[in-house]
Write a structure and sequence with these properties.
The protein is built from 19 helices and 4 strands. It is an all-alpha fold and 569 residues long. It has a domain at 382-568. It has a two-stranded antiparallel sheet. β1 and β2 (213-216) form a beta hairpin. α15 runs antiparallel to α18. It starts with a helix and ends with a helix. The relative contact order is 0.12.
């Protein structure tokens, strides 16, 4: 077997083997049972005391969401102010300037919502201070926010009848102190020992083999790179992200970072089964999600290993695959797999340039973000999948001619309307934003957006359309990767994608948590012989079919205009 394929299989298998005990641990820890991390109790009580929080206070779904939304609003203002004034703050050995207001707006939102869409170049756009006290800080709290909302869903599913979805502050704090922080420390140490910088020194000056003098950026990057992958954040310390040799020195660190991206999303699936005591249901979800990923990943790996058909027609052999935009130390196969996992899992970390991948590989990357429910980001992947479950339950109920039920609670019009609204609004944000960008480009910018369209869209035709479509898809999915032929640091893109990120983050959280709260407080209805089994293979196939149908109906036209047209051309 090809050694690259062996590395891919090994990475995935080891991740699943690690995710299973982690999921069991998280289920016990969030349920309040005794775990090996109980020594953190005094630290957590101290945090609650100084913050004036009653960590034992039960919260209904409205109170839970209010707590989550209020603290996230505060973080946006905090980040916006510091980005605007970063040149006046300490820890700026390279003398990086302040961000412009529109870039500060975009970047603050981007990291608060776990998207990490970067319209700046990492090492030159921010300082060490804002890298650590804004970006790294937000990568912890945004991941913990997603995990806390997933646990709220768990609580809604666990009890027959309840209004208590758990205390947001308690779950949020424990997600950081007992999951994200300890694992990140381990990953950071491994990265540092494998060549990732962990120094506060400024740029170093080196002389290349050709005799050129080059300034090389560095900094305390190892810790940030650890949480960016573990928390499914994705923002790069350096502009080229995990393609940079300091962020990702070799194949081993590539496997480590890829495993870190997958670890918590998969572990939360197992945690769901242990927490609500429905392991078969969790395994069904894991199986459907994994099948979906394989459908996206296998063709992508094949296309990248096969190379460019255009070069084949010219008689140019590509024994190593399509290597444009890729690093030799990773290769075409591993880079192709990474591109799918980073878009499936909503990390957005890249070890190769997605703009250089084969047209249909780009389509698969877009599909991964358009579906946004196969594993997904920390917690939010499950929340997105829950929306599809509700729609599947509703359709399944119609098919058998009885009122839809899910875990002993009747699914009625209000819950279905919320689920439908979430899916429709996502399509509106992506296609509406792309249409606005396409119109603005073709009209040559009648409004003054500081940068004319021809300056930010360098590729004509279908590939240029793909770049714009990908940008809004990535923003809505809170992914952060991009087709970087697009010049996106201007007022138009900073404002429009900033708004897309806000709605793309919080609507798919508010909807599922609200549905979980509404269903949980309803009277429990015991299962009968006619009840639709939601942990069966049949229901799994139904849910998968719903995902495919909704995605195809919503996004087939823009996919045809972009990557499919480029492939056929």
């Amino acid at each position: 077997m090809n050694t690259e394929l062996t590395g891919i299989i090994l990475t995935f298998v080891l991740t699943v083997l690690l995710a299973f005990p982690l999921g069991k641990y998280m289920a016990k820890m969030f349920a309040g049972e005794r775990t090996i991390t109980d020594f953190m109790n005094p630290v957590e009580r101290f945090i609650y005391r100084i913050a004036g929080i009653d960590a034992n206070k039960p919260m209904n779904w409205k109170q839970f969401l209010m707590a989550m939304l209020s603290i996230n609003c505060l973080w946006i203002f905090y980040a916006f102010f510091l980005f605007l004034n970063q040149s006046h703050l300490p820890l700026n050995p390279d003398g990086n300037p302040d961000m412009s207001p529109d870039l500060s707006f975009n970047t603050a939102i981007s990291f608060v919502v776990n998207c990490n869409l970067q319209h700046y170049s990492g090492e030159s756009g921010v300082t060490y201070f804002t890298q650590l006290f804004v970006i790294t800080f937000l990568q912890f709290v945004s991941a913990a926010t997603g995990i806390a909302c997933a646990v709220a869903l768990f609580n809604g599913l666990k009890h027959k009848t309840t209004e208590n979805l758990g205390n947001f502050w308690s779950i949020f704090t424990r997600a950081i102190t007992r999951v994200l922080l300890p694992i990140s420390i381990v990953i950071a140490i491994v990265l540092a020992f494998n060549g990732t910088p962990a120094s506060f020194d400024g740029k170093d000056t080196i002389t290349t083999l050709q005799g050129d003098t080059v300034n090389v950026s560095r900094g305390p990057a190892a810790g940030m790179i650890a949480i960016k992958h573990l928390g499914t954040n994705g923002g790069g310390w350096f502009g080229t992200n995990s393609a940079h040799p300091f962020e990702n020195p070799g194949y081993f660190t590539g496997m480590l970072e890829l495993a870190a991206q997958m670890l918590i999303p998969i572990a939360l699936l197992f945690a769901l089964g242990f927490y609500i005591k429905r392991k078969k249901f969790a395994w069904m979800i894991f199986g459907i999600m994994t099948i979906g990923i394989l459908i996206l990943a296998v063709p992508t790996i094949n296309w990248e290993m096969s190379g460019s058909p255009a070069l084949h027609k010219m008689g140019i052999l590509q024994s190593n695959g399509a290597m444009e935009g890729k690093e030799v130390r990773f290769g075409a196969a591993f880079s192709g797999f990474w591109s799918i996992m980073t878009t499936v899992i909503s990390t957005g970390s890249v070890n190769a340039m997605h703009d250089s991948t084969m047209p249909m590989s780009g389509a698969m990357q877009m599909l991964a973000m358009l579906i946004n429910a196969f594993y997904g980001g920390c917690g939010v992947g499950l929340l997105n999948y829950y929306i599809y479950i509700i729609i599947a339950v509703f359709i399944g109920g119609l098919m058998v001619g009885r009122t839809p039920e899910f875990f002993g609670h009747k699914v009625e019009a209000r819950e279905v309307k919320i689920a439908a609204l979430v899916t429709l609004l996502s399509a509106f944000i992506i296609k509406g934003g792309t249409a606005l960008a396409a119109y603005y480009f073709t009209s040559h910018g009648h409004a003054d957006w500081a940068v004319k369209p021809e300056a930010w869209l360098n590729n004509p035709g279908s590939h240029g359309f793909s770049e714009m479509f990908y940008e809004f898809t990535s923003a809505n999915a809170n992914n952060g990767s991009g087709f970087e032929g697009l010049g996106d640091n201007n007022i138009f893109w900073n404002l429009t994608t900033g708004l897309a990120m806000i709605f793309g983050r919080f609507l798919p959280i508010i909807g599922p948590v609200a549905i979980a709260g509404l269903l949980a407080k309803k009277k429990y209805v015991p299962e009968t012989a006619g009840t639709l089994k939601t942990d069966s293979l049949t229901f799994g196939v139904l849910t998968f079919a719903i995902i495919i149908i909704i995605t195809a109906l919503s996004y087939f036209p823009p996919l045809v205009l972009g990557p499919i047209a480029e492939w056929l051309g």
